[in-house]
Amino acid sequence: MIPISRPNIGKEEKDAVMKVLDSGIIASGPKVKEFEKNFAEYCGVKHAVAVSNGTCAIHAALHGCGIKKGDKVITTPFTFIATSNSIIHAGAEPVFVDVEEESFNISPDKLEQALKKDIFRKIKAVIPVHLYGQVCQMDKITAIAQKYGIKVIEDAAQAHGAKFNGKKAGVFGDAATFSMYATKNMATGEGGMVTTNNDGIAEKIRIFINHGMPKVYYHTEVGYNYRTTDLEAAIGVEQLKKLDGFNSKRKENSHRMNKLLALYPFIKCPQQMPGRDHIYHQYTIRVSDGLRDKLLEHLNAKGVGAKIFYPVPLHKQPVYLNLIKKNQSFPAAEKLASEVISLPVHPLLTDADFVEIAEAFKTFDGVKK
After folding, report:
1. Which fold has domain 244-362?
2. pTM value?
3. Boundaries of CATH 3.40.640.10 in the chain?
């Protein structure tokens, strides 16, 4: 089976982990500080705070931005549930707005429509998700947020190194969050990061993720243990050095996939939108004519690890039936959920893998001969 993703771990990461093990400092220590410094410099921000995973990163960022019980936070219904779960964990309520079909990302027009309807001014923030590795229209989103006086927290879990108008994800909002999960473009197994240019937000997050403890055994709030370890940070330091190379290979593989799929009119390849540098965390096609599920089954049977991200929009998730507003409809998100398939484009794909993928598509019954 050709996997949809595969961690790209080399000798450098293994040696770095062994050095940490030999040092005896395997919890949060100097490697975490090094990783934070390097990540902040890479993104072009003042602060990066390492945390234990991407979900914790969103929760911590919400706390850092002052989101509290009774507040509402806008986000997209077409993403992984961690985004909206974190809003609920912060005591707030997720408010969904629809996405753009072309980019898969939150619609700035729909965002402004929701804010215009917010007569009680309970919406305090928006979390745009840079889905699949392409940055949202952050110029429009930040302008709208400023107009209505709300915070912007980028969910950049899938967008390490992706750019909008020449700037990297992680610099546009009041804060931004990243995941280092095993499938991400750079991976530490688990792990996450929050970036911000705001000194106060950074300090508030650092206290929150360490049991509300600004100094040892002196607690000023009820926080969490969201710290990461030097073991993960050691991997992260080495992965960050390779990230641009990983992303370049993903882009190269995506262009190759575009050519391979140009033969099939029922497939729409992902679009790189103007001003964006897409880093293809996922290479996600849209399949028309009701052929999506049949094609997915065929590809998997032929050894191609294709997957659906995400088959059920968040407003339709069973867990939310009693937690969010009922009878909502987001046509674009619902349509995309019924059409998308993600295909392997990770950096470890070989020429033989592409031959196998091409053969799998050629033998699909839905192809008109």
Report:
1. Aspartate Aminotransferase, domain 1 (3.90.1150)
2. 0.97
3. 11-239
Distance CA 348, CA 18 (A): 24
Residue-wise pLDDT for 12-29, tens only, equals: 999 999 999 999 999 999
**Mean pLDDT, to the nearest integer, of 123-142?**
98
The answer to whether residues 135 and 106 touch, using CB atoms and an 8 Å cutoff, is: no
Ranges for all domains in the chain classified under CATH 3.90.1150.10: 244-362
pLDDT in tens, 194-236: 999 999 999 999 999 999 999 999 999 999 999 999 999 999 9
- Mean pLDDT of the region 51-61: 98
CATH code assigned to 11-239 = 3.40.640.10
> DSSP state, 276?
E
- At 97, the pLDDT band (50, 70, 90 cuts) reads very high
Long-range contacts of 197-201 (CB under 8 A, 24+ apart): 197/45, 197/46, 197/47, 197/171, 198/46, 198/47, 198/174, 199/46, 199/47, 201/47, 201/61, 201/64, 201/65, 201/174, 201/175
Q: Which two tokens stand for residue 106?
A: 């939150």
**Neighbour count for residue 69 (Cβ, 10 Å):** 8
Q: Is 90 helix (H, G, I), strand (E, B) or coil?
A: coil
> Do residues 156 and 169 touch, judged by C-beta distance below 8 A?
yes
* Chain segment 317-349, per-residue pLDDT in tens: 999 988 888 889 999 999 999 999 999 999 999
Residues contacting residue 11 through CB under 8 Å, at least 6 positions apart? none
Side-chain-side CA neighbours of 14 within 13 Å: the count stands at 5
The letter for the amino acid at 66 is: G
Smallest CA-to-CA distance from 131 within 284, 308, 313 is with: 284
Tokens, residue 15: 């040696």
Cis check: omega of the bond before 148, within 30 degrees of 0: no
Q: Residue 367 has what pLDDT?
A: 58
